[in-house]
Structures are given as C-alpha cells and as structure tokens.
Write a structure and sequence with these properties.
Blueprint: H1 3-39, H2 107-110, H3 119-122, E1 146-151, E2 156-160, E3 166-167, H4 173-185, E4 191-193, E5 215-217, H5 218-226, H6 231-245, H7 252-269, E6 290-291, H8 292-303, H9 306-312, E7 316-320, E8 326-330, E9 347-355, E10 359-368, E11 375-384, H10 390-402
Length: 406
C-alpha cells in the first residue's frame, strides 16, 4: 500500500470516528431531554378564575376585599331567645327549626312532604294548590349571605349573591301573609276570636302573646304579626282569612291550608317566579323558599299598601283586646328603636326574620332624600351569621353607601 493510500485510510478512520462521536453526543442529548420531560410533572393549563360579570347599574363587591360585614359588639353575641316567649316580655323574631316540618299539622294540608332532595327535585304541586313551585330558581341556598340594595325608582344598585338563587325567607314571609289576607278580607274589621289554630304554632316560635278565646280585629292581627312577628297572630289571621277563601274549611288545619294556597296564588298574580310557601309564618321548611328577585317585588308591594307601610314602621304599640286585656307589641326591627345603638332615623320599615337555617334576615326600607327627589332604598340581607346587630349595622352601612347614587 502506498503512502498516499495509507493517509487516505487514516483520514477516513478519523472522519468515521468523529461522526460516531457526534452521533453518540446527539443521542445523549436527546436522552437527557426526554428524561427531563419524563421526570417533570405533567404540564396543566393555568387555572383562570371565572370572570365576574357586573350588570349595568349594579355594583359588585368582592367578599374578600376587606369590605366586610362588621362584627358588632361582643356583648350582643347571645343567640335570640327561642321557645314560647313570656308575654310580659319582648319576643324576639325567631322561629326555631328543630321540629321536623314534614310532621307538622299544616304541612299535610298545604304542600308536598319534605324530602332530603333539593326542592326543585322533589316538590310536586300539592293537591290543594293551583300553582306549582317555581323551577327556574337555583338550588337552596348557599352558605354565603345574600344582599341587595334596590331603589324605588327601579335601580338595582348592589347585589351580593344570585338574584334567582333560592333562600329561606324566615319571617319575611309574613309580608306575603299580610298582603294575601288584605286581598281576601278587604276592609273587614270584624272581631276575630282566637281558636284551635294556636295548636298549629310550632315549638320555639316567636309569639305576640295571644291566647285561645282572645278577640281582636283583622288589622290588629296584622299589627301583631308584623310588629312583634307573632306566629300566633299569623296562624290566627291565616285561619280567619282561609275560611273566607274556602267557606267549607271546617278545621283550623283546612282553613290554614286554604290560606297558604292563596299565598301561592298571590305569588303567581304578582309574577314571583322563584317562591313557594308552605306556611303563613316562615317557620323553617325545606320546601318553603323565595329569591332575592321575588323579595324585591314583595317589599315594593308591601310598601305600596298604606296600612302595611304604616304598620311596618311602628316601634311599639298597645293593642286593646275586645275580650279584655292588652297586647304590648314591640318591633323586632331595632333600626326603629330610638333607644337602640343601631337606630337609624331614615328607616321606615319593613320586616326581620330568623331561623337557624335561614340565619338573620331583614328587608329594611330607608327614606333617601339625598337623591334627586325622594325615594325609598330597600336593603335586603339574608343568611347573615353572628351577633344579632349585624343585620342592622350592615343595613345602615349599605344605605349610607348607596344613598343618593344612581
């Protein structure tokens, strides 16, 4: 072999060696990359919080931005009194939810039996009612408070929660009871004798102090129901007005059933789409519910009735019974109490409520004179937890925040 051929052979071997080395390096790099990918966690798209849409003319507030419900004074943290109240003392606006509402006398006549399922899944129309529970409303209810500020000129100024989400209205129900009764009895001022319907009042209810055999008028029953939130007055009124709707109702249970049927009919006539009533007082029942949208309609309708508007703004009243004796009525709305630390001179009503399941509730009506012309601001708070003053201090705070705004 010539020297030239040997040089060519050596050059080829060198080239092949370099090429082999390059291949080895490339394979190693590839292996390293694949190995690194296998060792790292599987990539996931970054989670982006859902966008919150704010309707026109509505102020949205983030519940975590520090603008929170005030805690209130620690000394007021005791729960509201439960159980039948001593009639010589002020009764709180409470309806204890301990009893199984599916076993109560009025439930068997006024609506479907309680089920563990959500109302929209298990609320067939009761045989006595021409209306069915609304199906457009969402599941009952979230643990978060529901709040709104609505003006009488038709503006929804603030909302926390969903307007169409079902919630438990507790004793705010009594506004519907009052308007239904007024439609049924008109200007009837007849004397009403309290009867067997008192046996339908549930344990732990707030009462106005009625006793069987007491005699008072329909307007006085409405006052006892709205001012001191008396469940005894609610049932007495329901039984009396229910017999006007169904003269064939021979028992208190049947008369109350007829009245509750009329409450649901009233809801249909007034275009409530997410409410269903099982009793006249708001005592807890899983099938008894409303929505913020409907409660805004209810509040406006109540304030448009001169008698309810006047009654809902009363702090104290003495009712002289036709049968002798008196009822001392004191409002559960501390915003009306000039001696209370939560008093608000702009408040002109409306109604409070409470059950353990519903939490503390209120629709407060305020006279807003800071806007162009006078209007009413309705502040609704449902599902509040904690000390009792929360619903009053928060209602006043929201009123101050939105007074004069459009």
């Amino acid at each position: 072999m010539s020297i030239f051929q040997e040089k060519v052979k050596t050059l080829l071997i060198s080239v092949l060696a370099v090429a082999a080395l390059a291949v080895i390096v490339a394979v190693a790099v590839l292996a390293d990359r694949n190995g690194g990918a296998a060792a790292s966690p599987a990539g996931t798209p970054e989670h982006t919080p859902a966008q919150t849409l704010t309707p026109p003319d509505v102020t949205s507030r983030d519940g975590n931005n520090g603008d929170t419900v005030p805690a209130g004074p620690a000394s007021t943290s005791a729960p509201e009194t439960q159980g039948p109240a001593d009639t010589s003392q002020k009764t709180e606006d409470t309806t204890d939810g301990q009893a199984d509402s599916s076993q109560s006398p009025e439930d068997t006549a006024t609506g479907p039996a309680e089920s563990s399922k959500a109302p929209e899944e298990s609320s067939p129309a009761p045989a006595t009612a021409p209306v069915t529970p609304a199906t457009s409303a969402k599941t009952v209810p979230s643990d978060q408070p529901n709040e709104f500020v609505f003006s009488s000129d038709g503006r929804l100024l603030f909302i926390r929660g969903d307007l169409d989400r079902r919630l438990y209205p507790a004793s705010v129900t009594k506004l519907v009871s009052a308007m239904t009764a007024i439609e049924l009895v008109g200007n009837d001022t007849s004397a009403v004798k309290v009867g067997d319907e008192l046996s339908l009042v549930k344990p732990g209810s707030s009462v106005s102090g009625l006793a069987k055999g007491d005699v008072l008028t329909v307007p006085e029953l409405i006052e006892a129901m709205l001012i001191s939130s008396g469940n005894d007055a609610a049932y007495t009124l329901a039984a009396y007005a229910g017999r006007k709707a169904d003269p064939g109702a021979r028992t208190a249970t049947a008369a109350v059933a007829a009245f509750v049927k009329e409450m649901n009919a009233w809801s249909v006539r007034n275009r409530l789409t997410g409410s269903y009533w099982k009793n006249p007082d708001g005592y807890h029942d899983a099938g008894h519910y409303s929505t913020m949208n409907d409660l805004i309609i209810i509040a406006q309708a109540a304030m448009n009735d001169p008698f309810i508007r006047k009654t809902a703004g009363v702090w104290k009243k003495t009712v002289f019974l036709d049968s002798g004796g008196t009822l001392e009525l004191e409002s559960t709305n501390l915003l009306l109490d000039k001696e209370s630390k939560v008093y608000n001179e702009k408040c002109i009503g409306l109604k409070t409520g409470y059950t353990p399941q519903a939490g503390d509730c209120i629709i407060a009506a305020f006279r807003d004179t800071s806007a162009a012309g006078e209007r009413i601001l309705y502040v609704g708070l449902f599902g509040l937890k904690g000390v009792k003053e929360i619903r009053f201090t928060e209602a006043s705070r929201l009123f101050r925040e939105f007074a004069g705004k459009s």
